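Proteins fold reproducibly. Look at a sample protein:
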Amino acid sequence: MKIIKAKVTPYVPLTEADVDKAIARGRKLKRLYANASNVRYENDCLSIGFSDGSRVVLPVAGLPEFEGFSAKDFQQLEVTFGGKAISCEAQDLDVSITGLIATSQPLMDLATSLVASRNGRKSSAAKTAAARANGKKGGRPRKEVPQPPETTDT
């Protein structure tokens, strides 16, 4: 087992410049990632709105976290934890929005497809070099078409 000793760092007081940098970094991250801004319950579904204007609608029938909820409980849902969770004070419930979306298999399949499509279009230096090397060899090898076996009729 490798022993790692903790480094002792001297106390450095927080300056106004440090606070300004942290605030700027937080604003930048807020623009990069869409956080939930509102949640509504309509037509037996949770409708989660995000800061970029998009919305996800999830049927509550498939979500065990909301079993036993009344219409009043659904009306008390609110977005908490900086747009990362949905909470209901009356039911003492805090649920991750990412977790709710991840339980929806069709949404996850769609996300997987979109990510695969986007990543497949990316070009890198390694892909470019491999394409050039294959081109020098005559390109992509052709698929071999299987020949049907010859039959001998006697």
About this structure: The beta strands are 36-42, 45-50, 55-59, 78-80, 85-88, 93-96. Residues 32-106 form a domain with the NE0471 N-terminal domain-like fold (CATH 3.30.2020.40). The longest strand covers residues 36-42.
